[in-house]
Amino acid sequence: MIDYVKGTLEAIDTQYVVIDHHGLGYQLYCPNPYIYQHELHKTIQIFTHHYVREDQIRLFGFPSRKERTLFEKLLNVSGIGPKGALAICASGQPEHVVAAIEEEDEALLTRFPGVGKKTARQIILDLKGKLIDFTEELPSKEPNLFTPYTEPTIDALDEAFEALKALGYVDRELKKIRPKLEEESLEIDGYIKKALQLLLKR
């Protein structure tokens, strides 16, 4: 298993980042690639999960082992694939997801793309009480999921929406929150986090 990749961040896409390690480019699919936008052409370390199936081999990347662990736990739930697990991890707040599981908050879990009531119930049945590492500091119900920025652009908002579509959110959902986001002054990462905050509150 590849525990992590450390190298120069060469590219950022809506779904993945590319890290150069001694001339070999690793494509790592991330919940929110734009959290690394200030690290472009710098040396970074990303913790990885090597996903192998008959029809797909991919490396998924995470900023911490804790977030990777949540992703791996979600993959073990019937009805959750890599795309769905990434969407759940995309808020960058694993503790909030765990809080919803521990409190059996099906309504919050069904706000993630691809998670219906049956899958939400399965997540709770399979994972409640099994995420000890996350329960030491359970958060309040109002997460702070965005970082302000002083020079917003429509391009940044459009890029953020493309990243959200890659996670499984549809135009109908995104159009409802776009007016509120256009009032903000954020970078791509900030728009994504704020959008997720709004989507999870709906």
From TrEMBL:
Where do the Helix-hairpin-helix DNA-binding motif class domain residues begin and end? 72-91, 107-126
Predominant location category: cytoplasm
Q: Which residues form a coiled coil?
A: none
Q: Which domain of life is it from?
A: Bacteria
| Keyword terms, alphabetized | Cytoplasm, DNA damage, DNA recombination, DNA repair, DNA-binding, Hydrolase
InterPro entries referenced in this protein's UniProt entry, alphabetically: DNA_helicase_Holl-junc_RuvA_I, Hlx-hairpin-Hlx_DNA-bd_motif, NA-bd_OB-fold, RuvA, RuvA_2-like, RuvA_C, RuvA_C_sf
Report the leader peptide range: none
- Please give one Pfam family short name: HHH_5
Q: Cite the GO molecular-function annotations of the record.
A: DNA helicase activity; hydrolase activity
Chain residue ranges for the region called Domain III: 150-202
Keyword Protein biosynthesis found: no
Localisation per UniProt entry: Cytoplasm
Q: What does this protein do?
A: The RuvA-RuvB-RuvC complex processes Holliday junction (HJ) DNA during genetic recombination and DNA repair, while the RuvA-RuvB complex plays an important role in the rescue of blocked DNA replication forks via replication fork reversal (RFR). RuvA specifically binds to HJ cruciform DNA, conferring on it an open structure. The RuvB hexamer acts as an ATP-dependent pump, pulling dsDNA into and through the RuvAB complex. HJ branch migration allows RuvC to scan DNA until it finds its consensus sequence, where it cleaves and resolves the cruciform DNA.
Q: Note the subunit structure.
A: Homotetramer. Forms an RuvA(8)-RuvB(12)-Holliday junction (HJ) complex. HJ DNA is sandwiched between 2 RuvA tetramers; dsDNA enters through RuvA and exits via RuvB. An RuvB hexamer assembles on each DNA strand where it exits the tetramer. Each RuvB hexamer is contacted by two RuvA subunits (via domain III) on 2 adjacent RuvB subunits; this complex drives branch migration. In the full resolvosome a probable DNA-RuvA(4)-RuvB(12)-RuvC(2) complex forms which resolves the HJ.
State the domain notes: Has three domains with a flexible linker between the domains II and III and assumes an 'L' shape. Domain III is highly mobile and contacts RuvB.
NCBIfam families registered for this protein in UniProt: ruvA
Q: Which family does it belong to?
A: Belongs to the RuvA family.
Q: How is this protein named in the record?
A: Holliday junction branch migration complex subunit RuvA
- Tell me the organism: Alkalicoccobacillus gibsonii
Q: Which gene encodes it?
A: ruvA
